[in-house]
Amino acid sequence: MNSREIYGIFVTILGAILIIVSLYTSLFVLIYGVPIFVIGLLIIFNKGEDKIEKINYKGGKNK
What we know:
Blueprint: H1 3-24, H2 30-45
């Protein structure tokens, strides 16, 4: 588990808590809870940033 996954889990749990709280209080809190929950899920399931590109040494001054 890396720091990105831990942060994603934390944000998702925070969003879920806000969604649950909005059911018992004002629905205004739901406006914040749903986007935070979705952003947390996107952070957890985003695997595109894990790829490291290979450096291309063609051209330049070293030739």
